[in-house]
Design a protein that fits this description.
Bound molecules: pyridoxal-5'-phosphate
Number of strands: 10
Radius of gyration: 19 Å
Shape: globular
Largest sheet: 6 strands, mixed
Strand content: 15-25%
């Protein structure tokens, strides 16, 4: 499997668009075709610990989860066994995401939505392994260890000159890591891809030291109907962005984040002299769930 390193390319958008501020993109989507960007960073501490303790990696996710497939691939690369607890009953066909996770050696175990909600580890898994042999990674990699790994996104790349750093927010683990690693004066902005997730700020603050708990800003106006929802406008935006810049985005996270940045730039949120770093968090495998021909890129 391809080696991964945390050093990412930075692309400037200011050559393609007449923005008032300087806008660059940190391409985490290029770290690996499957272990998409931010997931790889978030998994680092968990992987190291599981490896040290000689454990089997176990985590939770839905049928289209970037986290599930990233964990499968990263575990295989680290020489660890992995188990995915999947929300809901198994359907007649597996999603692209789950097929790929399986191909990376992940054992899939489907559970009812009720027991998934409680994050129960199914009895058959307990019988096979025993709790002391399992290393549990929380759903979406949420936690202080996930945030710690995400700090490297800024620390391993040349990001000190930016006035603003913007990224998509799901569990908030990545934005917590970015906030923790941001330099004094750098403004961190998270774009929530969920509708009315009002507990999000609190969940992010919980991952941060007291002095950093108010050092990020969340915007809730760019969810386009809610998690994994989309409008024709989002798809049109993705195709136009790709046509102009050759940067692919995913419809769940990065398209909404880029859209938000463009909208804010147009509305004068940023001023001349500002330097915005858009973090492309990856997630491109999620586009495989779209009907063929929706996007002009694969
Ligand atoms: C999972 C994911 C996110 C959200 O990351 P959190 O740390 O859960 O907030 C953002 N972008 C992409 C592409 C993702 O796959």
């Amino acid at each position: 499997m391809m080696e991964i390193n945390p050093f990412c390319r930075i692309y400037t958008l200011s050559t393609y668009y007449d923005f008032r501020a300087n806008v660059d993109v940190l391409r985490l989507d290029q770290v690996h075709p499957v272990i998409s960007g931010n997931k790889w960073f978030k998994l680092q501490v968990y992987l190291q610990e599981a490896k040290k303790q000689h454990k089997v990696l176990l985590t939770f996710g839905g049928a289209f989860s970037n986290h599930i497939v990233a964990t499968a691939a990263a575990a295989q690369q680290a020489g660890l066994k992995s188990i995915g607890i999947i929300r809901g009953e198994q359907g007649p066909v597996l999603s692209h995401t789950l097929l790929q996770a399986q191909a990376y050696g992940m054992k899939l175990c489907f559970t009812s939505r009720a027991s998934y909600k409680e994050k129960k580890i199914p009895a058959e898994i307990m019988d096979d392994h025993g709790l002391d042999k399992l290393y549990v990674v929380p759903e979406g990699g949420y936690g202080t260890k996930g945030a710690k790994g995400a700090e490297d996104i800024l620390q391993k790349n040349n990001t000190n000159s930016y006035s603003h750093i913007m990224a998509a927010v799901g569990t908030g683990t990545t934005i917590a890591g970015l906030t923790a690693a941001a330099k004094e004066g750098q403004k961190v902005i998270g774009i929530s891809v969920m509708k009315n997730n009002l507990s999000l700020a609190e969940e992010i603050s919980r991952l941060l030291p007291p002095a950093k708990q108010a050092c990020f800003r969340l915007l809730h106006d760019y969810h386009f109907g809610g998690y994994a929802r989309k409008t024709p406008e989002v798809i049109r935006f993705m195709n136009e962005l790709y046509k102009k810049t050759a940067i692919p985005t995913d419809f769940v996270y990065t398209a909404k984040t880029f859209y938000a940045a463009f909208d804010l730039l147009q509305k004068g949120f940023f001023t001349a002299g500002d330097r915005l770093l858009l973090v492309h968090t990856g997630g491109l495998q999620g586009n495989l769930s779209l009907p063929k021909g929706t996007l002009i890129f694969g």
